[in-house]
Amino acid sequence: xxxxxxxxxxxxxxxxxxxxxxxxxxxxxxxxxxxxxxxxxxxxxxxxxxxxxxxxxxxxxxxxxxxxxxxxxxxxxxxxxxxxxxxxxxxxxxxxxxxxxxxxxxxxxxxxxxxxxxxxxxxxxxxxxxxxxxxxxxxxxxx
Length: 143
Known about the structure:
alpha+beta; three-stranded antiparallel β-sheet; 6 helices; 45% helix; 18% strand; globular
């Protein structure tokens, strides 16, 4: 599975995916230029970035295990900005009795099938001192 995903990336995509991580401030400026908004999770929320059918299957298989350790949660599924099949943003909201640190969030998101490159970059941002290492780019809601 992983080998096929890596082979599907060109060298330039690998460079871009693995070595570019914006601070949350840079992400907000980039999002504004592109007409997007940045959405940050609160302390009761996880953001799962699904990029393949396999990642979605991992999420479905592991979600019950998470509820056994934490609590039940609600899931909001939204297509990611690419619009490609199985490209989803999942927002998981837990009860107010469950709180996540940034490190907790990154580990749980990875466990639940979130894009491993995204989670690696979030970890590097956290290690560099970014207080908001996890985020989604979304379209603004229409008024």
